[in-house]
Amino acid sequence: MQRRKVTIDGNEAAAYVAHKINEVIAIYPITPSSPMGEWADQWSAEGKPNIWGTVPTVIEMQSEGGASAALHGAIQAGALATTFTSSQGLLLMIPTMYKVAGELTPTVFHVAARTVATHALSIFGDHSDVMAIRQTGFGLLASGSIQEIMDQALIAQAASMESRVPFVHFFDGFRSTHEVNKIEQLTDDDLRAMIDEELVRRHRERAMTPDRPVLRGTSQNPDHFFQAREACNPYYLACPTIVQNAMDKFAALTGRQYHLFDYFGAPDAERVIVLMGSATETAHETVEYLTERGEKVGVVKVHLYRPFSVEHFIKALPATVKAIAVLDRTKEPGAIGEPLYLDVITALHEGLDGRPMPRVIGGRYGLSSKEFTPAMVKAVFDELAKPNPKNHFTVGIYDDVTHTSLEWDPEFSTEDPRTVRCLFYGLGADGTVGANKNSIKIIGEETDNYAQGYFVYDSKKAGAVTVSHLRFGPKPIRSTYLINKANFIACHQFVFLERFDVLKAAVPGAVFLLNSPYPADQVWDHIPRNIQEQIIRKKLKFYVIDGYEVAKQTGMGQRINTIMQTCFFAISGVLPREEAIQRIKDAIRYTYGKRGEAVVQKNFAAVDATLDHLHEVHYPEQITGPEPPPTVSPKAPEFVQKIVAPIIRGEGDQIPVSAMPPDGTFPTGTAAWEKRNIALEVPVWDENLCIQCGKCVIVCPHATIRSKVYDKSALNGAPPTFKAVPARWKEFKEMLYTLQVAVEDCTGCALCVAACPVKDKTNVKRRAINMEPQIPLRETERANWDFFLKLPSVDRDLLKPSVIKDTQLFQPLFEFSGACAGCGETPYVKLVTQLFGDRAIIGNATGCSSIYGGNLPTTPYTVNEEGRGPAWNNSLFEDCAEFSLGFRLAIDQHNQHARDLLARLAPEIGEGLVKALLEADQSTEAGIRAQRERVKLLKERLATIDAPEARRLMLVADYLVKKSVWAFGGDGWAYDIGYGGLDHVLSTGRNINILVLDTEVYSNTGGQMSKATPRGAVAKFAAGGKPSGKKDLAMMALQYGNVYVARVALGYNDAHTVKTFLEAEAHDGPSLIIAYSHCIAHGYDMVYGLDQQKAAVQSGHFPLFRYDPSLLAQGKNPFQLDSKAPSIPLEKYAYNETRFTMLARSDPEAARRLLEAAQRDAQLRFKLYEHMASMPLNGSRKEEPVKEEKHA
Amino acid sequence: MPDLTTTYLGLRLRSPLVASSSPLCQNIGNILHMEDAGIAAVVLHSLFEEQILIESQSLDRHLSAAEESYAESLSYFPDLRRYNIGPDEYVEHIRRAKQAVDIPVIGSLNGVSTGGWIRYARLIEEAGADALELNIYHLPTNPSIDGATVEQQYVELVRHVKASVRIPVAVKLGPYFSSIPNMAAKLDEAGADALVMFNRFYQPDFDLEALEVVPNLVLSNSSELLTRLHWVGLLYGRIRADMAITGGVHTAPDVLKCMMAGAKVAMMTSALLRQGIDYAARLEEDLIRWMEEHEYESIRQMQGSMSFQRVADPAAFERANYMRVLSSYELRSRPAAH
Questions:
Q1: N or C of chain B: less Cβ packing under 10 Å?
Q2: Checking DSSP bridges between strand B242-246 and strand B265-268, what pairing results, if any?
Q3: Same domain for A265 and A239?
Q4: B6-35 pLDDT tens trace
């Protein structure tokens, strides 16, 4: 059978083989491996069979621990099973991996190698995860290119079947998993030829079955465990040869020969680099370049890392080698060296058999996908050539602390001149990456060119910037590094010119394509000076198109992808113009055809309209443009200037080690310095219509709308356009009120407008807050915002925390996060910081909330004018409840210690103060403030007491002030991976507040089903609609009896949400708040998020209640039902959202059945709640429900 | 028993009772039920081109909204094999309806673009519909477009569709034309095989508390029949095309009036929605009873019998009608003055 050439990424390449040769696939989503599971699930959902004609079962588990355990069971029961994972996920599998290997059970785990979280989480690639499992007994097979991934996925499976050694087949996260490259696809015949049916038969025969019962998993004792453990040795000794034989068989089949250790370079090389993973490709390219120029260098590419074959390694090395550099993509602090280095040293020591030992040095590179370029490879070879090369070096960073780093020449390049290199700067929302993926497929599959695509994404979700790196040419492309010398650069957003040095990579004579709102004859003067200078100096060919105008004319909205793609093909000439346009249209039909002819035709129209708008710019030789604005305000603190600003500019690679905190500790409040200006339209306050209800403030996901009440005198010196009106508070009659928008931080989501209860009586379209274009407002509102920040805040003691308009005068201590525009989670997070932020300590489960809460360069948690604010930390995905409980345990311990010391030091401190401190009522803001004053006084007195106990008390005195402990996380954490811990924490009875931001899906990893996903919703791993109902976590927690449990939906009743937060926090015990959070993963315009929250409650999908154990003591029913009986059919809620409607389209019958079942769920659930709420309990039934604050 | 048969769009029907285009016809079970209850033909619910466009664009927008923006979540939904966007579902519905019943099945189409009208008309024909009803629901909102232009668009549309399909084509009209007879004549000339009078425009209502415009769907009543009788009666015998009355047909007398005005069929939705599909059987019985009592032999006998051309005092159809109403009030009030 002819093998197809396909242009795919590494994840698809691995999943393709894995799906075809396995029967059970147990997975759990984790970046960057998730797409492998998603591919497998999709293929199974489509009924694609494996090579034995059955459709593999794909099951999503509650964690990677669960996935590996399910896999373990499946292989023990004789199935062929696999899983896909990364990083922490792989770590969670370790205990099972020991078992799987110990039982000599064949399987292959395909691992997208990713950084293990240490001082910080990173989703990017290195080998810290796979190095953490090298002791488990699994084989480790490394792939470096997309072709290798497909090939070795098969080789690993074949070798595992024969050797009975289970394998981890790994490849670099993102660089390999997400790189698109043109490869030859293996056929079913290839797979059948490699997978020996006899070995499958033997595997089946070893299966546990009551028909041939055996016992495994015994418990063994000192007299026999050891020798039993050694009994597996023959299998490991045979394994390398088995792998090599599989490689040889594969070579006979396909012509692609691999070795356990592949050597490439001069046969008489004196300097050799040893490494594995994607960097082998860059090293190969560099060695090829250097050997062509006479250098005696080479590279050993490690494929089979475990079991490590000394014999094969020694054979791979040229006998002439004098110096070896072993590069590890991991760090083991405290070790003599990193693992591969140590293995190589040992292998040489054992294998050279008396021959002279070459010099061996070890180095680290590429942690967390740090760039590893030919220049760095050359730097390592250059180091090896030195008489005393540096050992334990690093390459790729500037280490000015322990001086480990090697210098490299950033100008050194091995790029083949025949390879065309293109860079595209776009926005996530404009579709640039999708179009580029299509382009690279077109080039790869429609021309003889080799092609490669790699895509770099933003750390923010709203207004995300993307950079696409495309290479194509007649030679295979091994460049596993970003393009830094480009022939073609396209900037799809004009504003990027002032934010990034988009032309830095342009080579002389390169083409520059700009999406410009200005025509060709006017654009020049609008281009920043630094960009103009490069255009002139590098003599660039410069084209402009008003992509947004074409998009507007053709109904494409903000999607300029196909327009810019057409320009790229027209200018680059990679295909004849007519053919290119036809291929683009073919790709459009392939990509969008299922979404309807209208979408296809719209894109066709955009393609057809494009070329008339594409113009070359004949620019003058003079620099006339404006200076680009500074990245951050000159007023920003030094840390922001020196570290944050370069990262924002895309220059983070230049930051030296000395500038970075060694323990991952960062100052808070840095997001305020990054003015992203991403909103096209921003809200504008109509002070005359406004009723000052605070609803727009409470719903703003990015805290860009603020209100203040202040004394009239504070208005002195206000900018001319600053707005102020008399405050509509009885208590503040003589004071002024201002609602101010931070237009430079706003994302333009318009939730505020949707929340506004006011309509202009003469024009009902108009609200008290309305969207208007941002650019004309930017300068004036910047000044107004600065002035607003300086206005004094009203005394919190004078405000009622239970009243929305009062709470919305509280300063949010969470602002300008990187969350999606219109996010449904962040208003809850913000509210916690408004109510309790100055005494809050937050543990955050990994997920959206940890990403928008803590992803550099800038972070949103901040401080008030006293310098107090939330202390925040993200430990792991699974351990958030326990981690946060630890805060409580420590705080309680500190508090008790302080109380003990107070009692002991009472005579010196003063009995009155001690009594007041010990008996303080801290149930109100005023009470807490008074206690803070007492602590201040205490510290003053302690300073005068010369005793060790006084000094100890000084350290813990602040813990006499009430602290608020919170655990934040999403439903993936609370319902699935973290449920066990969460449950246990609730059972402890300790005072901890758990906020579950329930989006009903794994939002952060891209929409996988969780146990919170409602019945009938489509999600990844539930393509046919989730068959089971949403787990009622609240009811499960309620069973403890002493846990405060509530369900809230801000869009249904904001006053209820606020009251619930206050009650939960006040409850002296565990509290669990499940907060309905609308999400971009639900598939509708998030401006309707609040309406959907309302509909979720009204339809009975998400009824609200509070269970307050304190009511029991009052003889009242603790269960209070806070929403009315379902008043709209579930359909009215569900069918506003794509997650439900897509099933109604794809499988109307299933959709109807699941909707009916979900409707029954809703009715039954409400009846149950109603029943619980009406249970008489020694007295009155319940307290009054919280009434919604209605205005207008 | 009197002969209830009639012909409409060249189709021979067992009676003039036709189910007009409504959500009832979305369900094959309902269509079977209608046939059992004696309904002589069904007009299916409309295929709305605009809805297809909106659904397609909306699906695309929401699936693409956050794609390829953030490294961990390059998409948020699984890629399903098909979304049934477009006319496939409707076409399949016609096929299934045709398999299920013997009575004629008339497709209904509401288009936006000329290309869309033609494309979907052909698909409806290919699916086996016995005829096609063009549900022209055009609300001119641009003040610079005059009535003649709008009328010409109607005419062109009918001409294009007629040139594209072989099955008979009916045109469902609204009552808001400066000259309904002229409009009818133009459509007749453009090839329309029948005129369906009239479309009921669901006009939006205001929610005074929320200050929002809300969709409003009110079922028809018999009083709405009068406009239809008036214009059908006026046009009977003056145009070649068949006429059907829809809107306000609720009782056997309503049906009889339609026939006498000159309609070939009387179409019902509100009556069936309100009273249930079985009501059609009762209505047929009432019809027969009335015809027997009044010794009518056939429906054909009465069709057009009270049209403009055939009534004793045709002025009743013209402006004098208005005068007569006024004067009749005058007459009635006069005795009271004595």
A1: C
A2: parallel
A3: no
A4: 999 999 999 999 999 888 999 999 999 999
In the numeric block, which tokens belong to residue B287? 């019809």
- Residues found in chain A: 1192
Q: How many domains does chain A have?
A: 5
Strands (E), A638-761: 681-685, 705-710, 725-726, 736-741
Residue A515 is a catalytic residue: no
Mean pLDDT confidence for A84-107: 98
Same domain, yes or no, for A116 and A168? yes
User: Which domain, by its residues, includes A968?
Assistant: 812-822+840-975
What are the pLDDT digits (tens) for A276-287?
A: 999 999 999 999
Q: Which of A7, A11, A22, A31 is catalytic?
A: A31
What gap in Å lies between CA A867 and CA A862, rounded to an integer? 9
Q: Can you tell me which residue has the tokens 């490699």?
A: A194
Residue with tokens 């406004």: A690
Taking each helix axis from N to C end, the angle separating B49-64 and B114-126, rounded to the nearest 10 degrees, works out to 100
Cα dihedral value B7, B13, B16, B20, nearest 10: -100
pLDDT category, B335, cuts 50, 70, 90?
very low
A:B CB pairs within 8 Å:
160
What pLDDT was estimated at residue A688? Answer: 96
- Nearest-angstrom CA–CA distance, A1189 and A699: 14
Partner-chain contact B78 A764, CB within 8 Å: no
Which pLDDT score is estimated for B319? Answer: 56
Residues of A in Cβ contact (< 8 Å) with B82: 594, 1145-1146
How confident is residue B337, by pLDDT bands cut at 50, 70 and 90? very low
pLDDT digits (tens, 9 = 90+) for A696-744: 999 999 999 999 999 999 999 999 999 999 999 999 999 999 999 999 9
Q: Is A192 a catalytic residue?
A: no
| A944/A1048 same-domain check | no
**In CATH, what number is assigned to the domain containing residue A358?**
3.40.50.920
Show the beta-strand stretches assigned E in chain B: 6-8, 11-13, 17-19, 41-48, 105-110, 131-135, 169-173, 194-197, 205-207, 212-214, 242-246, 265-268
* Two tokens, residue A493: 């957003």
Do A467 and A605 lie in one domain? The reply is yes
Q: What are phi and psi of A1035, to 5 degrees?
A: -65, -35
Domain stop point among A617, A646, A680? A617
Q: Let me know whether A58 and A191 are in one domain.
A: yes
Does residue A1190 have a pLDDT over 70? Answer: no
Domain CATH code at residue A954 = 3.40.50.970
- Is residue A769, in this structure, part of any structural domain at all? no
Quote the minimal CA–CA distance from B79 to chain A in Å: 7
Asked if A557 lies within 8 A of B84 by C-beta distance, the reply is: no
The last residue of a domain, from among A581, A601, A617:
A617
Write the DSSP symbol of residue A672: G
Give the number of other CB atoms < 10 A from CB of residue A1070: 28
Closest by alpha carbon to B109, among B44, B174, B163, B164? B44
Residue of B nearest to A1084 (CA): B62
Spatial distance between the Cα atoms of B280 and B268, rounded to a whole number of angstroms: 9
Tell me: do A386 and A459 sit in the same domain.
no
pTM: 0.93
Q: What is the percentage of chain A residues whose pLDDT exceeds 70?
A: 99
Judge whether A35 lies within some domain.
Answer: yes
Residue A547 lies in a domain: yes
Using an 8 Å Cβ cutoff, are A317 and A272 in contact?
A: yes
pLDDT of residue A769: 97
Let me know if A402 is a catalytic residue: no
| A123–B72 C-beta distance less than 8 A | yes
Give A760→chain B minimum CA distance, Å. Answer: 10
- Assigned domain for A1158 exists: yes
Shared domain for A1020 and A1159, answered yes or no, is yes
Number of Cβ within 10 Å of residue B189's Cβ equals 14
Instruction: Give yes or no for A1087 touching B (CB within 8 A).
Output: no
- A959/A1016 same-domain check: no
What stretches of A728-806 adopt beta strand conformation (E)?
736-741, 769-773
